[in-house]
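can u do me a favor
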């Protein structure tokens, strides 16, 4: 394991772009907990929202097919 996160730390649309560069297949599922994960969640066939922040909860209408996992 690395003692620190490797650069760059991806957020928002950069996650989707990085994934597309390395994985040519469709995104079957994506997991997120914050609004910065919305672009990745939107591109997945099954978006899974895990312990979402209040801000992401307020925007769940943007992910009508989302599976929501809360404690």
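np, heres the sequence
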């Amino acid at each position: 394991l690395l003692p620190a996160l490797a650069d760059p730390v991806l957020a928002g649309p950069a996650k989707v772009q990085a994934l597309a560069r390395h994985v040519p297949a469709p995104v079957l599922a994506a997991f997120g907990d914050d609004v910065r994960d919305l672009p990745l969640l939107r591109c997945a066939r099954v978006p899974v929202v895990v312990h979402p922040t209040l801000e992401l909860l307020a925007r769940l209408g943007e992910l009508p097919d989302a599976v929501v996992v809360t404690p």
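The longest strand covers residues 46-50. hope that helps!!
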